[in-house]
Structure formats: structure tokens, C-alpha cells
Design brief:
four-stranded mixed β-sheet, binds glutathione
Length: 215
């Protein structure tokens, strides 16, 4: 399999974690987002949305990190990334979607670039925007995790799709919030700490990717 991504892309990070959990080797192809390589004609043929990741598996090209991860879960069922019962699956998907739909898109590069370049927000205003949506989102996520089902991980004691979405979002948050600010979200940070002890999560982190640059 060939994963088109970028070391700092949290959506690609999600797929890297899933591939590692499934024990699947893959080739990494880096597209430098700050240089706009995700909008190059060659990449747009793979993903017309102009966003990473894209996963090539034989003749198939897949896009959207959550769709890719569910595909991997269906084609490589062990270990499962979703629980068995419908109600538990719904909880895990709700946690994953809270990150992927309600938090992550507001702080995506193209949104931030539009705020800075077109709407002329200052660097300070940009950072305020970023922090605001992380804090709002994490308040909700912390509340969701306080309700039944959370164990060592977001749901129970094994990693699921929810953890795969949570961890990259915490990495993003850490770029703008210090430890004192993150301490307001004890359940998120506890689960994050447990995930990072798992080799599949650790090996997927941005600084350990071949295209990693100094922060
Ligand atoms: N919903 C998409 C989001 C993909 C996405 O937003 N990717 C970001 C990196 S995390 C990107 O390519 N950003 C480039 C840009 O904003 O121009 C997914 O889950 O795959």
C-alpha cells in the first residue's frame, strides 16, 4: 500500500496509526502542504479535494481518513477498531466524528491561510482562533469521555477509531496550548498518555516520519 500524506497532517497521522495497528507495511509519499503540493495536478487526480491523505491499495485509491480506516478494518479485521455492538460502535464513531468533523476542519491549513491571507487576521488573531476551537472542541470531547464506556482508551481497554482520531488532535493542540491549559481536559490527556505507550501510535507520530522537519 502507498500512503500519500505529510508528517504534520493529522488526518494522515490517523491512517498511519491504523496501518501500524493492523501490522500493515506501507510506502510513504510526502506532499508538502505548506508548499501547496496537495493542489498539484498529479495529486488532484488521486484526491480532487486537494487534501491528504490518500491511500493506494493495488488498483484502488481511497480518500477520507475515516473511510480509509474503516476499509482497513474491513479488509484486515484483526485487531478490530470498532466494537461489536451497534450502540458501542455508535459511541466510538461519535467520538471520532466529534474530532474529524467538529474540531479538525476549523483549524485546517486552508482555513488558517484564508484567515491570514484573505481576511488579513494578524498572527495573534490566528492563534486566538486556533486555541478557541481546540478549547471549545475539547470541552465537548471531555464531556463525552466522562460518560460511560471510557476505559484505558476512549472506549474500553483497547484502541479504537476514537483513539486514532483523538491522538493526532492532541498533537495539534499541543502546538498552541501549554500543559497547564491542557490539564483542563484530564480524561483526554489520560487516554492520550495511554495511547502513546502503544508502539503503533508512537511510531506514527509526526517527528518519527521520514519527511519530518524541525518544529
Ligand atoms: N476529512 C479529511 C480531511 C483531510 C485534511 O483536511 N487534510 C489536511 C491535512 S490534516 C490537508 O490536506 N490540508 C491541506 C490544506 O488545507 O490545504 C480526512 O479525514 O481525510
Amino acid at each position: 500500500m502507498k500512503l500519500h500524506g505529510y508528517f504534520r497532517s493529522s488526518a494522515a497521522f490517523r491512517v498511519r496509526i491504523a496501518l501500524n495497528l493492523k501490522g500493515q507495511a506501507y510506502e510513504s509519499v510526502s506532499h508538502h502542504l505548506r508548499k501547496g503540493e496537495q493542489r498539484a495536478p498529479g495529486f488532484l487526480k488521486l484526491n480532487p479535494m486537494g487534501l491528504v491523505p490518500a491511500l493506494e491499495d493495488g488498483p484502488h485509491t481511497l480518500t477520507q481518513s475515516l473511510a480509509i480506516i474503516e476499509y482497513l478494518d474491513e479488509t484486515h479485521p484483526a485487531p478490530p477498531l470498532l466494537p461489536k455492538s451497534p450502540v458501542e460502535r455508535a459511541r466510538v464513531r461519535a467520538l471520532a466524528l466529534a474530532v474529524a468533523c467538529d474540531i479538525h476542519p476549523l483549524n485546517n491549513l486552508r482555513v488558517l491561510n484564508y484567515l491570514k491571507n484573505d481576511l488579513k487576521l494578524s498572527d495573534a488573531q490566528h492563534d486566538t482562533w486556533y486555541r478557541h476551537w481546540i478549547v471549545e472542541g475539547f470541552k465537548g470531547l471531555e464531556g463525552m469521555l466522562k460518560t460511560g464506556g471510557t476505559g484505558r482508551f476512549c472506549h474500553g481497554d483497547t484502541p479504537t477509531l476514537a483513539d486514532i482520531c483523538l491522538v493526532p488532535q492532541v498533537f495539534n493542540a499541543k502546538r498552541f496550548l501549554d500543559d497547564a491549559a491542557l490539564a483542563a481536559f484530564p480524561t483526554i490527556m489520560r487516554v492520550f498518555g495511554n495511547c502513546m505507550k502503544v508502539e503503533a501510535f508512537d511510531r506514527a507520530q509526526p517527528s518519527k516520519q521520514p519527511d519530518a522537519e524541525a518544529a
